[in-house]
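ok posting inputs for the LNCXM5UN job
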Amino acid sequence: MTDPLTVRVPLDGARAYDILIGRGLIDAAGPHLAALGGRAAGIVTDETVAPLYAERFRAALERHGLRTSVVAVEPGEGSKSYAHYARVCDALLGMRIERGDLVVALGGGVVGDLAGFAAATLRRGVRFVQVPTSLLAQVDSSVGGKTGINSPHGKNLIGAFHQPRLVLADTAALDTLSEREMRAGYAEVAKYGLIGDADFFGWCEANWRGIFSGGPEREEAVAACCRAKAGVVTRDEREDGERALLNLGHTFGHALERIVGYDPARLVHGEGVAIGTALAFRFSARLGLCAGQDAGRVANHLALAGLPTRLQAVPGGPGDADALLDAMAQDKKVRDGALTFILARGIGQSFIAPGIDRDAVRAFLQDELAAG
Ligand SMILES: O=C(O)C(=O)C[C@@H](O)[C@H](O)[C@H](O)COP(=O)(O)O
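and the output
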């Protein structure tokens, strides 16, 4: 393999860590994990990823003296549940994973969030490594230490901040991703441009096909997103301020995921984010904050990449405006009962907008639903 790109997340002292990005890192993982110390690695994965990579990954670690065991959950958001969390914790305990050992997430965002939460709580905290195998996890969820599971009340409502010690993003793993999962991850790539980097969004408009097809644009995009996220997380690790910007599109998106019961046949996270991002821009335009032209440009680009941008695109329907508002009421950004949205003054000019009036949101959603 060629030398991977490295992005540093410069948190305090020993909590700083590297994100390595490149093709072939799954097979080359041994020395990187062995260098962290520990005798054993408890690998958490899912039943789609396991047959593709688990044996190769285990062999790579065992060649470097690590004892390995694997627990695989069902693929999909449904595994971010109390029942699966308990199963994973008990499996890791059954493997005798100690505090000095490693819990490793080998998979997409669901596996990373679930394994990370298990690592955060097992023996009150075991060291954790992310080996993300989806675009979404490589550009976003594997970095920054947000871990957790869903509740019937809403998305990611039970969780902990637990930073990984290392992230290995093997971009060759994306070659086996379905077109749909690739698109879903791309919604988070575009998000980084829309939050604070208009040039990066322009670059995405020109280069997104290369990310999908596995050209050098793929590593460039993963590194650009990780660099942006590393900066935000280092400045505001626990989301007291700026980090909330990373939630662009997520207030609407999480509500949609809850409405479909986290059913991946209807909606996956990135699709919810794509619809939510288009809505956030149209809502900003309606409030007179950003030009309608910008909202149109965002929706056009997401649609060109094959992503949904309208509520009506949710199979089985998105519920009515009140159902959506009800789902949003449990958003973690709610303060004193009022909704906080991430809105935009233009492309690359997102900002945190607290105290958003529910009636304004209801009227907007009703118009969106009526637009057909
Ligand atoms: O890392 C963050 O901070 C994010 O908000 C990134 C999001 O894209 C990601 O989906 C995150 O897991 C959502 O977190 P939540 O706090 O809104 O549940």
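notes: The domain at 179-371 is CATH 1.20.1090.10 (Dehydroquinate synthase-like, alpha domain). The two ends are 49 Å apart (CA to CA).
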